[in-house]
Design goal:
single chain; rod-shaped; conserved putative lor/sdh protein from methanococcus maripaludis s2 fold; 43% strand; 4-stranded antiparallel β-sheet; 333 residues; 6-stranded antiparallel β-barrel; 3 helices; alpha+beta
């Protein structure tokens, strides 16, 4: 007697599902591994260098071309400082140069006329020497005033405040019309190479090493999964009982300088049993693993789940606090 159509359909579906299911995962041998004992610290997004853009001459801020948050390039004009005294000196020198040009032209004419008369034997050599000396004096005076005018022009050019480096403007403590002295800061610019600056308690400082991997909570960076960075510099000076270190993180934001992010750093190592998350199943709030035995059917063993071990090379590992021993063999549930 053939089975009812409904049972035949169910058997066919079950067979198809069995044939389409992937191969069972390979057995996993439990081993004790050293894991990092992570501690949570807060780090801030900071620039490796904050460079001030300073005024080179005293005067009044005539024009301000940037504001907080602007991105600037190296050599870009960010402000102009003007000084009325420089323009007055420039006008004075222009008038002196105009008078010296007339004197120099007259001295040149006198020198040519006296040279012609001397060649004809009409005037003495002493008269020619006097005229030549007067011409040289007028020429040198003209050069001196021209050089002084070049100095004033350079001072006026130095009134243009330039960005010393490429980066983002953090603060602008002046406004148009502000009177400043030479050397005062017009803007503070954070250099473009942003880093994550950690401040770790000194009792954990001996565990910090250059090149060590740190783990970040992904939410502050706009990502759900955990992010990782690498410590690139550890400062030797301890500040307020904390060691300062810089870490390089891919995709770190560069707008909100000073943003706080929670970071997990290593504070030593301890032995632990770590298994893949796919070998742990949960039923009625209790975690189980299938323990394989020689020649017998695997049995379900309750275990106590610990924290998730998040590493770049093991994103789905779980620490097992109790229920397993070194050398146990697990099979996938």
């Amino acid at each position: 007697m053939s089975p009812p159509p409904s049972r035949a359909i169910l058997l066919a579906l079950a067979l198809a599902a069995l044939l389409a299911s992937p191969a069972a995962a390979a057995p996993f041998t439990v081993k004790v591994h050293p894991v990092a004992d992570e501690k949570a610290v807060f780090a801030t997004v900071e620039s490796a260098d904050v460079v001030p853009a300073r005024a080179r001459i005293p005067g009044t801020v005539v024009r301000l071309e940037v504001k907080e948050g602007d991105q600037v390039s190296q050599g870009q004009s960010i402000a102009t400082v003007g000084d009325d005294k420089l323009m007055l000196q420039m006008n004075s020198l222009d008038a002196q140069i105009a008078g010296l040009k007339a004197q120099l032209a007259q001295a040149e004419v006198d020198l040519q006329r006296t040279q012609s008369l001397f060649d004809k034997g009409t005037v003495a050599r002493s008269r020619l020497d006097e005229v030549r000396t007067a011409y040289n004096v007028a020429s040198n005076a003209m050069k001196a005033r021209t050089a002084e005018r070049s100095v004033i022009e350079q001072q006026l050019a130095e009134g243009n405040v330039l960005a010393p480096t490429a980066g983002r403007v953090l603060t602008v403590p002046v406004t148009p019309g502000t009177v400043i002295m030479a050397g005062e800061t017009v803007a503070r610019i954070a250099e473009a190479n942003f880093v994550l600056r950690l401040r770790v308690p000194e009792r954990h400082a001996r565990f910090l090493k250059v090149g060590e991997t740190i783990r970040l909570d992904g939410t502050p960076l706009g990502k759900e999964e955990a992010q990782f960075g690498t410590i690139r510099l550890i400062y030797p000076q301890i500040e307020d009982g904390r060691v300062v270190a810089d870490a390089a993180v891919a995709g770190l934001g560069d707008y909100f300088v000073g943003e706080r992010i929670r970071v997990w750093v290593s504070a030593g190592e301890r032995p632990a049993i770590v298994v893949p998350a796919s070998y742990v199943s949960t039923r009625f709030g209790i975690d189980y693993v299938k323990l394989a035995r020689d020649g017998e059917t695997p049995i379900d063993v309750p275990v106590q789940r610990g924290r998730v071990i998040q590493k770049p090379d093991a994103p789905d590992a779980i620490e097992i606090l109790s229920g397993l021993a070194d050398g146990d063999v697990l099979v996938a549930p």
